[in-house]
Amino acid sequence: MSSLTAIDHVGIAVDDLEAAVEHYRRTLGVKPILRERVADQGVEEVLFAAGNSYIQLLGALAPDTPVGRFLTTNGPGIHHVAYRVTDIASTLDQLRREQVRLIDDVPRRGSRNTLIAFVHPKSMGGVLVELVQEG
Amino acid sequence: MSSLTAIDHVGIAVDDLEAAVEHYRRTLGVKPILRERVADQGVEEVLFAAGNSYIQLLGALAPDTPVGRFLTTNGPGIHHVAYRVTDIASTLDQLRREQVRLIDDVPRRGSRNTLIAFVHPKSMGGVLVELVQEG
User: Fold this and answer.
1) Which of A10, A91, A105, A124 has its CA 20 to 30 A from that of B92?
2) Is ipTM beyond 0.90?
């Protein structure tokens, strides 16, 4: 049985990544610890540590990307929440048993040597949920 | 200097609190640990533990409440993110120095013997931010 052990991160879509990083640094006193450009997802991300969790700022590399389309439709704001689980394959099995619609039927590699999978917001009360298993 | 030590919780607005609690229990295997009706905020909340953080489901007690209006405008989904800080008064001072617009200029009592204050989403890139200091 897989356990949910943490809020891994909150993903926040921003219009201007550099300005947002500076704003988080100045207002909340947090420091960026990782920056990664994920070309196949069309996103550049910056992570800040928040104890055992992360704040993830997401900038779109182009308008025609998932985060770019989110920004066009909703404007900047919270994009998704990620839960850390001990066994992502087992969690995905459990979600399938409960007829939950998955975006990623099979886990894929995320940043920080993680395995990740997204769950469709239609099955989670409008919340885009990401599952994360650490490496 | 105040420090941001955790994502205290993610607040999720739901249409039907009982159905959502049951859905979270069955899909993610989490257990509700606290239920509280906060009449002056027009909300009933259920907390689930997620390691050192919480998942907070928020049901509106009436349409003409902050969460009720959020549901009417946006539908169900992520309502806010709360960061745990060591010294909320000092964090609010820092935000004021950075010209950030506050919803609560002075901390008030939250649940779990906490002090809380909300920050205006206009000043935080569209994100409704809550600050939480544990008691």
Assistant:
1) A10
2) yes
